[in-house]
Amino acid sequence: MKGKEWYQADDVAEEYDSKRFSRGGRLIDDREKKAVLDALAPVEGEDVLEIACGTGRFTAMLAERGANIVGLDISEAMLAQGREKARSAGVADRIEFLRGDAARLPFPDDHFDAVFAMRFFHLAETPAKFMAEMARVSKDVVFFDTFNDRSTRVVYNWLLPMGSHLYSASQVNRLLDGAGLRLVDDQHDFLLPYGFYRKIPNGVAQEFRDLDTSLGEATIGPWSVGDALASVSYWTATVDDE
């Protein structure tokens, strides 16, 4: 089972966080949350839209920091997990969860201060359309991540139940240009693929993460190893009013 059918299954939603963010996967969770906060903070009082909010990891985190946030996802099972997470964190009053299609966002133009999507574009069937919609409803910031086509992810990609679309930097730049967005920051991380970290215990995960980070920060002549071979990139853009 692949794609939308896999993603919307009840058992996938129930086990999503525990399978991906336990063991060494907790380091992935930490890094992704840092990337979101780096791009969007400060969020207190800001109106934020999260596309493909899944189980609400980021939705609840931003609500705890004072954001007024809408979480949109195609999976009702994932949204149920998000609502429970929001209730447990005591921030349900700051979040509205909606089931919807990212290709046809049910909001007017310039409705949010920031729009972001994590773990989304590798599954996007029509990425240009999704990007255009994100840009349309944002007044300012658009933030997202991609899996990259010059990384170990190329090999790991064959093992995923859904398969992933891998992007080059030039492809991302074309998406941004087509949506009227201007890139303001990009960060590249994880030479080792996510699947590796999920398989190793906490006790050794940090040692591998430290090595991964050191290698990613290394340079060969004018080239950054991380920029060239990282499996994940985080992209921060802004609506180009020019």
Give a nutshell description of this structure.
With 242 residues, this protein is an alpha/beta fold.
SS-based class: alpha/beta
Q: Output the CATH topology.
A: Rossmann fold
Q: What is the H level of CATH, i.e. the homologous superfamily? A: Vaccinia Virus protein VP39
Q: How far apart are the termini?
A: 45 Å
> How does the overall form come out from the CA principal axes?
globular
- Give the strand content: 15-25%
Strand order of the largest sheet: 3-2-1-4-5-9-6
Radius of gyration: 17 Å
Secondary-structure element order, N to C: HHHEHEHEEHEHHEHHEEHE
Can you give the helix content as a percent range? Answer: 40-55%
EC number: 2.1.1.-
Enzyme class: transferase
GO molecular function: methyltransferase activity
Domain Methyltransferase: 48-139
Secondary structure: elements and pairs:
Blueprint: H1 3-7, H2 10-20, H3 25-40, E1 47-51, H4 57-64, E2 68-73, H5 76-89, E3 95-99, E4 112-117, H6 127-137, E5 138-147, H7 153-156, H8 169-178, E6 181-189, H9 194-199, H10 202-217, E7 219-220, E8 223-224, H11 225-229, E9 232-239
Please describe what this structure looks like.
- Residues 48-139 form the Methyltransferase domain.
- InterPro entries: Methyltransf_25 (IPR041698), SAM-dependent_MTases_sf (IPR029063).
- GO terms for molecular function: methyltransferase activity.
- This is Class I SAM-dependent methyltransferase.
- The strands form two sheets. Strands 3-2-1-4-5-9-6 form a seven-stranded mixed beta sheet, with helices on both faces.
- The protein has helices spanning 3-7, 10-20, 25-40, 57-64, 76-89, 127-137, 153-156, 169-178, 194-199, 202-217, 225-229, and strands at residues 47-51, 68-73, 95-99, 112-117, 138-147, 181-189, 219-220, 223-224, 232-239.
- It has 242 residues and is α/β, with parallel strands linked by helices.
- The mean pLDDT is 88.
- Helix 4 (57-64) runs parallel beside helix 5 (76-89).
- The chain has a single domain (3-147, 162-189), classed as 3-Layer(aba) Sandwich (Rossmann fold), CATH 3.40.50.
